[in-house]
Structure formats: structure tokens, C-alpha cells
Design brief:
By secondary structure, the chain is mostly helical.
């Protein structure tokens, strides 16, 4: 969730740059805001690196657990029915592993937390917008 908040750093930096630095022409403010953004970008890079390492380890664990079972099942199928066995099951396993450990699934799970916040804010905004109509 913190990574998602750090994705807002570039637009906020530009807004602050135009609002505070350009209007006042303050070099000190520019240096401080830029230093803060550099620290936040380094933090974002480190968190992305940790996230990618976690995903690689989870993918390797899934592959370690399931690839032996799939290979043994394919081998038994090849013994029983020699013409029906193919390696498509192994490629299917690879696709499943890539899907479960990919950025899309991880982003989806991370954005689930924002879903509730967004729904609450939409609901609250709707109530606040319609409240004057009910008070009449």
C-alpha cells in the first residue's frame, strides 16, 4: 500500500514545484523538495526490489511444489497412453505460476485495500451531496 502512495510522488512534486518554487523563486525550497523526492524515489526503488524478490521466491516455491507432481502425472500418462502425453501441462503450470506471481495479481491484491476506501468516500460524498435535498 505504501508503494501505491509513493507512486503519487512525481505529480505531487510537480504541483509543489509550480505552487511553491516558481511563484516564490526560492532556491532553498527547490533544493529541499527535490531532496525529499530523491529520498522517496530511493525508498520506492528499494520497496519494488523487495517486492520483486518476494514474488520470485513465491514463484520458485510454487514451481518446486507442483512441477514434480505434474511431471510424474505426465510420465504415468505416457506409460499408460503413449500417444496422448504432451508437455502442454508443464507450460500450463508455467503460465499459472507466472499469473499468480506476476505484477497484475500483486497489484490487484494491493488495490483491494483502496477499494473499500474509495467506496466509502463515494458513498459519503453522495450522502453529503444529496443531504440538502432531504432537508427541504
Amino acid at each position: 500500500m505504501f508503494i501505491n502512495l509513493l507512486m503519487l510522488v512525481p505529480p505531487l512534486y510537480m504541483l509543489q514545484l509550480y505552487d511553491r518554487v516558481v511563484t516564490s523563486r526560492s532556491v532553498e525550497t527547490f533544493i529541499m523538495i527535490t531532496a525529499l523526492v530523491i529520498v522517496l524515489f530511493i525508498t520506492l526503488a528499494l520497496l519494488e526490489m523487495v517486492r520483486s524478490r518476494i514474488l520470485v521466491r513465491v514463484g520458485n516455491k510454487i514451481d518446486e511444489i507442483l512441477s514434480g507432481r505434474v511431471f510424474n502425472a505426465l510420465f504415468k500418462l505416457a506409460e499408460k497412453h503413449p500417444g496422448r502425453a504432451s508437455s502442454s501441462a508443464l507450460s500450463d503450470l508455467t503460465q499459472i505460476r507466472q499469473f499468480l506471481t506476476g505484477n497484475g495479481m500483486f497489484a490487484f491484491l494491493m488495490h483491494l485495500g483502496y477499494l473499500y476506501i474509495s467506496l466509502f468516500s463515494f458513498y459519503f460524498t453522495h450522502i453529503m451531496d444529496t443531504l440538502p435535498y432531504f432537508q427541504q
